[in-house]
Amino acid sequence: MSKKDNIYANQLEQVESFSFDQKVVEVFPDMIKRSVPGYTAIIDGIGQLAKKYVQPTSNVYDLGCSLGAATLSIRQAVNKESCTVLAIDNSSAMIERCRLIQSGYNFDMPVDVIEADINDIEFENASFVVLNFTLQFLPRGQRQQLINKIYQGLNTGGALVLSEKLTMGSEQLDANIIDVHHDFKKLNGYSDMEIAQKRAALENVLIPDTREQHYQRFKEAGFTQFDTWFQHYNFASFIAVK
Description:
The protein is an alpha/beta fold. The protein has helices at 22-35, 39-53, 69-78, 92-103, 140-153, 171-187, 192-202, 211-221, and strands at 59-63, 84-89, 111-115, 126-132, 154-165, 225-232, 235-241. Strands 3-2-1-4-5-7-6 form a seven-stranded mixed sheet.
């Protein structure tokens, strides 16, 4: 069972850069539900979208899978023995817990939980790829190349689902929506100090893009069908179909 996220509940002498280590693993479900507006709806939606796009005898990729919430949603919704989910993350702590969680479910669709850098993955026979709040943690210089590789490895009619925190089009609007997001976190029990310390920890670690930057990457990769299928405040999820 997930513990309550109190990582930043006490004043820290020095706020270290955020990483997906063991202490985050222990509280991750609580952390993400209290921090990301619409997270549960996105996870549910990924499963429903998988029903539409996962093709028989194909591969499904969950990139930056963390504890495998998207993987579970896909396996529960699609349930095809002929397909395999490849759940990939570079955090040893996340992968260890993800394997334990996935082994507790008896779905027909098998899963292969892999510790690896998603930039090193060669996509083959892919019909559905998920980047659920993952791309924003990669250096900007690596993002286009990854989207290009995904497009090249997708089967015709396959889909990429990309969820991200967004930067708004104007500085004032961005500042106001960030304030609204912080209010959301306060309503979920986080203190001003927790919010401030978490924001400091994520600075230069989570670097969001605008919607237009994401759309431009889709275009450059070769996608001609893409749109926003979900948004709550400055958190959005896109779908791009080959």
